[in-house]
Amino acid sequence: MKIVRNVIVAFLFVYITSCQSSISDAHAWPKPKIIDQTELDIYISAAKQAETIENIVERCLSYPNMPGQQWYEGYQNYRCNLLSVKYPEFKEIKTLFDNHGVSGLEQVFNEALEAQYQDIDRVEPLFILMDVFDASQSAYELASNWYEQAPDSIFAQAALGSTLYAQAS
Fold first, then answer.
1. Checking CA distances to 19, which of 33, 96, 99, 144 falls within 20 to 30 Å?
2. Residue 106 in contact with residue 153, Cβ under 8 Å?
3. Rounded distance, CA 33 to CA 52, Å?
4. Is residue 159 within 8 Å of residue 117, measured between CB atoms?
5. Which SS3 state, helix, strand or coil, does residue 35 take?
């Protein structure tokens, strides 16, 4: 009986180790490309040239790819256009609420919601705008005040939810 058990264990060991080697061979990482000094010098020269451009989007678009790196088509344009989008910071949102109340915030957030579906070059502006509602006490107080004044507002609910989630995390 011990012999049969040992044969079965040996068979399973050989089978498992052969499967592992074929799995690891099939999913092996590609070997990294070695960058030579000439490629690196060309890259650094082009990057320095890009740094001289004043406009942030044009500067971003003119940066070369690192040697051996390829972005998906359209990614660089997409990424660089994100740099040009300016969203209000918390202080601006708070001032807007203090000066214009719920209607001021609702207008800004409605515009962000419309832009999210109409302007494909702007990436999720509503979610980026909602990032001001973090775990800070001031963000919680603003979200709570907004919610108290407009409990049916989906934006006020989301703002309060964002602060509560951030505080719990």
1. 33
2. yes
3. 29
4. no
5. coil
Which of 139, 60, 59, 122 minimizes the C-alpha distance to 87?
122
Query: Which among 41, 91, 35 is positioned nearest to 67, based on CA atoms?
Result: 35
Higher pLDDT, 143 or 126: 143
d(CA 89, CA 77): 24
Q: DSSP letters along 86-141, please?
A: ----HHHHHHHHHHHHHHHHHHHHHHHHHHHHH-TTS--HHHHHHTTS-SSHHHHH
Helix, strand, coil content of the chain in percent (nearest 5): 70, 0, 30
By C-alpha distance, which of 127, 130, 139 is closest to 164?
139
Q: Is residue 117 very low, low, confident or very high in pLDDT (cuts 50, 70, 90)?
A: confident
| Tokens representing residue 5 in the block | 């058990």
Whole-number pLDDT of residue 106: 95
Q: How far is CA 60 from CA 10, 36, 42, 160, in A?
A: 59, 24, 17, 35
pLDDT for 11 beyond 60? no
